[in-house]
Amino acid sequence: MRVCIVYESRRGSTEMVARAIEKALRDNGFDAQTWSVGQNPEVDDCDLVIIGTPIYYERPLPQVVRFIEEKSGLEGKRVAVFILAMAQKFGKLGKEYTERRYLRLMMEPIKGRVVSARAFDGWLFRENEATIVEAGAWAVEVARLCKGGE
Ligand SMILES: Cc1cc2nc3c(=O)[nH]c(=O)nc-3n(C[C@H](O)[C@H](O)[C@H](O)COP(=O)(O)O)c2cc1C
């Protein structure tokens, strides 16, 4: 099973998480490769597309949304979405808000089957080790589920 990880990042944290996801998948025997949206990767032969963006000014990065739209909403694909944001750090309301608004904005243009969507704690300066570990474990779990359902 081939897993394609596609991301965009401004300050590097989403890129770091995308690369950690790739490593975790490879360590667990999956064929995984990472691209930035700017590289405009071909996703036709990907069995699972894991796509990630940070949230800036209440929105996913526009180039990520554009990528999804340009790839026909990833129609016919299994898709796992992740975002990096800060709002969920602000208690229960922040978490609900993040999940409802930010994840919805990311999922709206997707016409494929969203198998999982997760919001991780982003960071500004010091990398969040917990996010890196959690994201890797999440991706492996999602890939295993997809493989099991083949
Ligand atoms: C200028 C700026 C605006 C941001 N706006 C939001 C926001 O509206 N909501 C949120 O939850 N996080 C917000 N964040 C937090 C980022 O999503 C978080 O720092 C993320 O890890 C950045 O990802 P990157 O390093 O891949 O660019 C903002 C961060 C910056 C620097």
TrEMBL record:
InterPro entries for this protein: Flavodoxin/NO_synth, Flavodoxin_CS, Flavodoxin_dom, Flavoprotein-like_sf
Q: Which Gene3D superfamilies match?
A: 3.40.50.360
Supply the PROSITE patterns for this chain. FLAVODOXIN, FLAVODOXIN_LIKE
Domain of life, per UniProt, equals Archaea
Q: Name one GO molecular function term.
A: electron transfer activity
- Family matches, as SUPFAM superfamilies: Flavoproteins (SSF52218)
A Gene Ontology biological process annotation?
phosphoenolpyruvate-dependent sugar phosphotransferase system
Boundaries of every Flavodoxin-like domain copy: 3-143
Query: What's the protein name?
Result: Flavodoxin-like domain-containing protein
Per the UniProt record, the lineage of the source organism begins with: Archaea, Methanobacteriati, Methanobacteriota, Thermococci, Thermococcales
